[in-house]
């Protein structure tokens, strides 16, 4: 084994009594639910602050119970099942979308595994469980949740929900590849897919400093994965009337909303674990306080980092407009995937050189030489492309656009222009024509009275 690979010690997991496993599972569920309730209120408050509004302020102190009141209201609403729906799939789709969102939190570490805490007198790790392939488990579970959205759109028996489900499926495929490549860079540096081991490997430096491109890629893909603004195309109200959940109501509609916010918390927890040091205290705190990473304090640092990432979600929603669907696909396939694959190859090259005991100067030389070679090749390719473009004959002019050619008005396609609108006659001339005068006056050339006298 390479000296840079981490030695995985997962012997502390799987030894808890059954009642403690149940307690930790209930804690993970309660953590997600409380965070979701808080995030909904926080999002409405922050967006209201950005838009100079008040926001929710009726239910509970400062409106903190607004999301709980909304949940109770949705549960008491009439539960409608449309006549054309496939009833079994229609009912199961919200469950399929919500349950996988809760499952990923099982392998997220809330604290160090070796520094165990006491729960009812029993020493245990601050993590439900861990696996040698924990990150693959998270990817697999996250991919299952999309089936709920696709099946919801298909089983509704309507056009707009089906389009929303297909959009979501295409969006997931586009962004899952770049997300996997961002994960692979972390695997190469940590030498493990275990979440607790990845956090342990960030003792000296967080991976946001070592792998900044991977962090940026994951931040963009996690917004696309959760269908949040500006990538909320499956729920585009302007052209899909709500998207895949159009035909849902009551508790089933609430489960789709719950799945969205739980996924936000889950991807934020994954970003914290992979790039932000996990449960580790930030540098100013850990520098002067030796006990910052011991006891129950790591839970506080973890929650603060997750809330900061949730604020980032809210900030994006209140700042950026929704992109077009072609822009969404172009960003995923033509930008994120090529950049993520190129960055992964670069990280793999650096790790291979480190494993061969090359020093940092040689690594910087090889990497810099490779980057310069790529820039040179791209410059030469652009130069020849520009030469070929100038040598081409100008494109023939398109025939004039007639908006009434099909018998009804249609908007122009890209590259087409509407014919100029004829200028309206002055009011005085129109009155003269209506009163019986001859329609011989040109616009603005002569006065209407002189023309009639002549």
Protein described:
- This protein has 454 residues and is mostly helical.
- It has a domain at 77-342.
- It is 61% helix and 1% strand.
- It contains 16 helices and two strands.
- The protein has a two-stranded antiparallel sheet.
- Strand 1 (117-119) and strand 2 (122-124) form a beta hairpin.
- The longest helix is centred in the N-terminal third of the chain and has 33 residues, at 18-50.
- It is globular.
- NDH-1 is composed of 14 different subunits. Subunits NuoA, H, J, K, L, M, N constitute the membrane sector of the complex.
- It catalyses: a quinone + NADH + 5 H(+)(in) = a quinol + NAD(+) + 4 H(+)(out).
- One of its GO terms (biological process) is aerobic respiration.
- InterPro entries: NADH_UbQ_OxRdtase_su1/FPO, NADH_UbQ_OxRdtase_su1_CS.
- GO terms for molecular function: NADH dehydrogenase activity; oxidoreductase activity, acting on NAD(P)H, quinone or similar compound as acceptor; quinone binding.
């Amino acid at each position: 084994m390479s000296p840079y690979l981490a030695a995985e010690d997962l012997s502390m997991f799987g030894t808890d009594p059954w009642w403690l496993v149940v307690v930790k599972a209930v804690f993970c569920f309660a953590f997600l639910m409380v965070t979701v309730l808080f995030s909904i209120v926080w999002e409405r408050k922050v967006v209201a602050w950005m838009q100079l509004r008040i926001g929710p302020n009726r239910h509970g102190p400062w409106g903190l119970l607004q999301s709980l009141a909304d949940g109770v209201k949705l549960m008491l609403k009439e539960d409608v099942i449309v006549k054309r729906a496939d009833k079994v799939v229609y009912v199961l789709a919200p469950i399929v979308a919500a349950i996988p969102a809760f499952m990923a939190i099982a392998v997220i570490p809330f604290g160090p595994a070796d520094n165990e805490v006491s729960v009812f007198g029993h020493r245990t790790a601050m993590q439900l469980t861990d696996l040698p392939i924990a990150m693959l488990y998270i990817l697999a579970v996250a991919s299952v949740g999309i089936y709920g959205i696709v099946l919801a759109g298909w089983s509704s028996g309507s056009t707009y929900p089906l389009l929303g489900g297909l959009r979501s499926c295409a969006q997931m495929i586009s962004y899952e590849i770049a997300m996997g490549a961002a994960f692979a860079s972390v695997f190469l540096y940590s030498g493990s897919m275990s979440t607790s081991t990845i956090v342990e490997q960030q003792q000296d430096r967080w991976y946001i400093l070592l792998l900044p491109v991977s962090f940026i890629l994951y931040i963009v893909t996690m917004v696309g994965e959760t269908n949040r603004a500006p990538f909320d195309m499956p729920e585009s109200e302007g052209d899909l009337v709500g998207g895949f959940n159009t035909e849902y109501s009551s508790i089933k509609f609430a489960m789709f909303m719950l799945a969205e916010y739980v996924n936000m918390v889950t991807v934020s927890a994954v970003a914290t674990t992979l790039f932000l040091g996990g449960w580790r205290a930030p540098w100013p705190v850990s520098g002067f306080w030796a006990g910052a990473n011991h006891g129950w304090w790591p839970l506080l640092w973890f929650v603060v980092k997750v809330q900061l990432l949730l604020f980032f979600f809210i900030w994006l929603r209140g700042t950026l407009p929704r992109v077009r669907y072609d822009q969404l696909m172009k960003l995923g396939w033509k930008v994120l995937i090529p950049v993520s694959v190129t960055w992964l190859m670069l990280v793999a090259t650096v790790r291979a050189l480190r494993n061969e005991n090359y020093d940092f100067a040689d690594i910087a030389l090889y990497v810099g030489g490779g980057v310069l070679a790529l820039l040179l090749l791209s410059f030469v390719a652009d130069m020849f492309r520009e030469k070929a473009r100038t040598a081409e004959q100008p494109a023939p002019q398109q025939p004039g656009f007639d908006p009434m050619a099909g018998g009804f008005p249609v908007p122009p396609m890209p590259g087409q222009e509407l014919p100029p609108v004829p200028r309206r006659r002055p009011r005085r001339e129109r009155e003269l024509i209506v009163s019986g005068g001859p329609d011989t006056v040109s616009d603005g050339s002569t006065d209407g009275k002189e023309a009639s006298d002549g």
